[in-house]
Write a structure and sequence with these properties.
By secondary structure, the chain is mostly helical. Helices cover 71% and strands 5% of the residues. Helix 4 packs antiparallel against helix 5. The N and C termini lie far apart (78 Å).
């Protein structure tokens, strides 16, 4: 009898765990999108972009790749910040539209992951390409949504 009772209690616990749970809601409006772009994505992208290319001085041309462990860590952390912020952009409070916004966020994520891998490998050529690709997705997204704002303003006015 005790075994039957334990089996029934166990089944009840199992069934209770299978019931539909309330959806988790996320407050994605703590800061407006412009602040997230400026204070998270731009801050993350800055050390990634600074780690690419070259500069020239009186002694010749030099790579911009980091020269210290802290510099490498800052560049890699920046790429990780951008990748994770791209996921944040897909949350309901930040999405502009379903298809295009998510596509841009996915590409931003993937280019940031590419940058992180290039930085981790310390491959200057790969860092150059990944940084350029990351910059380009930002430019493409900004151009797309600037055009949409202009079209909306023209319809309204």
């Amino acid at each position: 009898m005790k075994e039957v009772w334990l089996a029934l209690v166990g089944a009840g616990v199992l069934l209770a765990g299978c019931q539909k749970q309330d959806a988790v809601t996320y407050d994605t409006t703590t800061y407006p999108l412009k602040r997230v772009m400026k204070n998270v994505i731009d801050v993350g992208a800055k050390p990634v972009l600074a780690a690419q290319g070259t500069y020239t001085d009186a002694t010749g041309e030099h790579p911009n790749t980091p020269t210290t462990e802290d510099g490498w860590m800052a560049a890699e952390s920046g790429a990780i910040i951008v990748a994770e912020a791209a996921n944040l952009l897909k949350l309901p409070g930040y999405r502009k539209d379903e298809a295009e916004w998510s596509k841009f966020a996915d590409v931003l994520h993937d280019r940031a992951v590419d940058a992180q891998k290039a930085i981790a490998s310390r491959d200057a050529k790969a860092i150059e390409q990944a940084g350029s690709d990351l910059y380009q997705v930002c430019e493409d997204c900004h151009a797309h949504y600037a055009r949409k704002r202009k079209e909306a303003a023209a319809k309204a006015g």
